[in-house]
Design brief:
single chain; alpha+beta; twelve-stranded mixed β-sheet
């Protein structure tokens, strides 16, 4: 066991260096980034340092019902996916290649969905969740990928005075984990490494032409989940807010409950994907909103979308390979620019587009 833990510790240390090299912060910031001409080499992604093996990730299900806000720890994930579940509620799958700081919470942790299985098959690693429908549970049981339903540890319920606000609503909104528990869990399960790499990165000051200047936009995940993203030029990232919808109250700017700072993401990707109702996943015999959804994001899937970075909104095409992250391509065939730091991927229906909240103009 000590050899296994040593190997995992070494892998995590190497991965931390690799992630840091990709740039989670900037030495200098451009408050008004100006795209470069197409002929300028800065328009191309910067090479990633000599790739180190990535630790196989931990995928954790985090809820987004208004009672769960503000969530804890999503800002520390390297990649986050969001998609709709029953009733139009959003659900996150956070993907961590390095465990969060020991004292940082992650949660509230909630149930798995069919898309969770798709992400597990693509990214590898281990899925941590709390519950699933009978249909999803059977699908997970039939896969060789690692999945852990409400394991204790790393999960625990909290009711302490220092717990995040969501705990006040009681179960199921009070289930969390933390960096210390996740480190122990990763060591004991020995997830190994994966063979793919994440995206190459483009500095904010070197964005290519082809985008439109859009400082704020709304994403139509569902009629009941329509987050607004506003560009913060000081931090070169997008701040998220949750407006009211016909069914649920708005909660304003979405903070990370670990530090009460806004959760900001440097790159937001909107993927138009097939949204597939799955009658077999309906736990309610009378029908209704509990019918399950699947999403066409598996190997060989492709489609259109949009990508927001540095205050610019680009039309893109995307394609998913057998493993690892999807590729994003601009209209001219060049790789789409992805800033250093976290990447948030929003799954929306085919043909769905973001709604700019500020006038859009072609980039100079």
């Amino acid at each position: 066991m000590s050899n296994s833990r040593s190997r995992i510790s070494a892998l995590l240390a190497v991965t931390l260096l690799a992630v840091a090299a990709c740039g989670t912060s900037h030495a200098s910031k451009s408050k008004s980034p100006t795209p470069h001409p197409a002929s300028a080499s800065p328009g191309l992604p910067t090479p990633t340092p000599t790739p180190a093996p990535l630790s196989a990730p931990l995928l954790i299900q985090v809820e987004n019902l208004y009672q769960a806000r503000p969530q804890s720890g999503l800002s520390t994930a390297q990649v986050v996916y969001e998609y709709q579940t029953e009733g139009g509620i959003g659900r996150f799958t956070g993907i961590w290649y390095t465990v969060p700081p020991a004292a940082d919470l992650v949660g509230p942790v909630r149930s798995a969905r069919l898309v969770s299985l798709r992400l597990l098959q693509i990214y590898g690693g281990a899925l941590i969740y709390s519950g699933a429908s009978n249909y999803v549970d059977a699908q997970l049981s039939n896969t060789s990928n690692r999945h852990f339903d409400d394991p204790e540890p790393p999960l625990y319920r909290t009711s302490s005075a220092s717990a995040p606000p969501a705990h006040e609503y009681g179960s199921p909104h009070n289930l969390y984990t933390n960096g210390s528990n996740l480190a122990t869990f990763a060591s004991s399960k020995d997830p190994g490494t994966v063979s793919y790499q994440l995206w190459q990165r483009t500095p904010i000051g070197s964005l290519p032409v082809g985008g439109a200047a859009v400082t704020s936009f709304q994403v139509p995940i569902s009629t009941e989940e329509t987050p607004i993203f506003s560009y913060d030029p000081v931090n070169d990232a997008y701040e998220r807010s949750e407006p009211a919808t016909p069914e649920y109250p708005g909660t304003g700017v979405l903070d990370d409950a670990n530090n009460n700072d806004p959760w900001e993401t440097p790159t937001v990707v909107i993927l138009q994907v097939p949204t597939i109702p799955v009658a077999a996943d309906n736990e309610n015999p009378s029908g209704g909103y509990t019918e399950g959804l699947d999403f066409g994001i598996g190997p060989d899937a492709s489609g259109s979308g949009q990508l927001a970075v540095g205050g610019q909104l680009y039309p893109i095409s995307w394609a998913q390979g057998a493993s690892g992250p999807p590729t994003f391509t601009l209209a001219d065939g060049q790789p789409a620019p992805i800033a250093p730091g976290q990447v948030l991927i929003e799954l929306v229906g085919q043909g769905a587009m973001v709604t700019p909240s500020a006038p859009a103009a072609p980039a100079a």
